[in-house]
From TrEMBL:
Obligatory cofactor(s): Mg(2+)
UniProt protein name: Phosphoenolpyruvate-protein phosphotransferase
Catalytically driven reaction(s): L-histidyl-[protein] + phosphoenolpyruvate = N(pros)-phospho-L-histidyl-[protein] + pyruvate
EC number(s) on file: 2.7.3.9
Family of the protein in this entry: Belongs to the PEP-utilizing enzyme family.
Keywords carried by this UniProt record: Cytoplasm, Kinase, Magnesium, Metal-binding, Phosphotransferase system, Sugar transport, Transferase, Transport
Domain PEP-utilising enzyme C-terminal: 8-277
Role, per record: General (non sugar-specific) component of the phosphoenolpyruvate-dependent sugar phosphotransferase system (sugar PTS). This major carbohydrate active-transport system catalyzes the phosphorylation of incoming sugar substrates concomitantly with their translocation across the cell membrane. Enzyme I transfers the phosphoryl group from phosphoenolpyruvate (PEP) to the phosphoryl carrier protein (HPr).
Localisation: Cytoplasm
Length: 307
């Protein structure tokens, strides 16, 4: 029930007074690129290889990444390195079953055990990026500490990749966002996993939907802390979890200082229209009210009262 501005359902994301909030697409391959997007905020590369018994070769990866980069000349593409684990298995990683897969060796943690897979992927991304005009950023999933972030950004730089960041999906990383930004060029908040780990609530469990509601005060507080760290460091902080696709919540995120929102392409028009109907000052007021609320219901009511 947010106010919308119909006239602006194409073009870049902006508040009513022109403050830019990039509206980017979440994709799994070049096939998901539909319509005219500002760019890609989350390229889930693992989805390309879910049925691969053998590791994808560097050339095979270069071809897949080139297909995406070449479709977006002059636009941003944020590539996430393989996000796999016992809960999202890639057959070629040959991971043993784990008692708690969501808490096991997944995301960047796989690279510790198997550094060759990350090195090959970074080399392929760098080769594809060099041959295209897209603005390629690279980020790692499931980072928990500033030391892990520093190790990852160093690996990216060694491959000549100029924009290296991390996803914030683990509360420990959100609490140390400022320290992570000493090395990382940007943060992207994966609010699906950040909710799961903050509330100790399996994201696949429908019975726990109440805890996984993005309007939960604890999640909003963590997002606010990361956004503030980004503003202080002068570095971009985006959101690429499902929460970015909620038009009302997008106003909260813009008001907190989040600089880009990435979502399924079909969700972009509604978020664009909501942003276009509110000034940045209104978004800030909405964010302040949401931050002060003690329950998700109160945060939603605060939005209705503020707009
Ligand atoms: C997230 O966790 O919010 C996210 C965007 O990554 P995925 O949904 O692929 O885990
Ligand atoms: Mg995630």
């Amino acid at each position: 029930l947010v106010r919308t501005a119909r006239a602006s359902s194409t073009g870049p994301g902006r508040t009513a007074d022109g403050h830019p909030v990039a509206l980017l697409a979440n994709i799994g391959s070049a096939r998901d690129l539909t319509g005219d997007v500002e760019g890609v905020g989350l390229f889930r590369t693992e989805l390309l290889y879910l049925d691969h018994a053998d590791p994808p070769s560097e050339q095979e990866q270069v071809a897949a990444y080139t297909a995406v980069f070449s479709a977006l000349p002059g636009r941003k593409v944020v590539v996430r390195t393989l996000d796999a684990g016992a809960d999202k298995p890639l057959p070629f990683l040959r991971q043993a079953p784990e008692p708690n897969p969501a808490l096991g060796v997944r995301g960047l943690r796989v690279a510790r055990r198997d550094p060759g897979v990350l090195a090959t992927q970074l080399a392929a991304i760098a080769t594809a990026a060099a041959a295209c005009e897209a603005e390629v950023w690279v980020m790692a999933p499931m980072v928990a500490t500033a030391a892990e972030a520093a190790e990852f950004t160093a690996a990216c730089r060694a491959h000549g990749l100029p924009a290296a960041g991390v996803m914030i999906e683990v509360p420990a990383a959100a609490l140390r966002a400022g320290a992570i930004l000493r090395d990382a060029d940007f943060l992207s908040l994966g609010t699906n996993d950040l909710s799961q780990y903050t509330f100790a609530a399996d994201r696949m469990c429908g019975d726990l939907a109440e805890l996984l509601d993005p309007w939960q005060p604890a999640l909003i507080s963590l997002i606010a802390a990361c956004a503030a760290a980004g503003l202080e460091a002068g570095k971009p902080v985006g959101v690429c979890g499902e929460s970015a696709a909620d038009p009302g919540f997008a106003l909260v995120l813009a008001g907190l200082g989040i600089s880009s929102l990435s979502m399924a392409p079909r969700s972009i028009p509604a978020v664009r229209e909501a942003l276009a109907a509110h000034t940045l000052e209104e978004c800030r007021r909405i964010a302040k009210a949401a931050l002060a609320a003690d329950t998700p219901e109160a945060a939603r009511r605060a939005l209705q009262k503020t707009i």
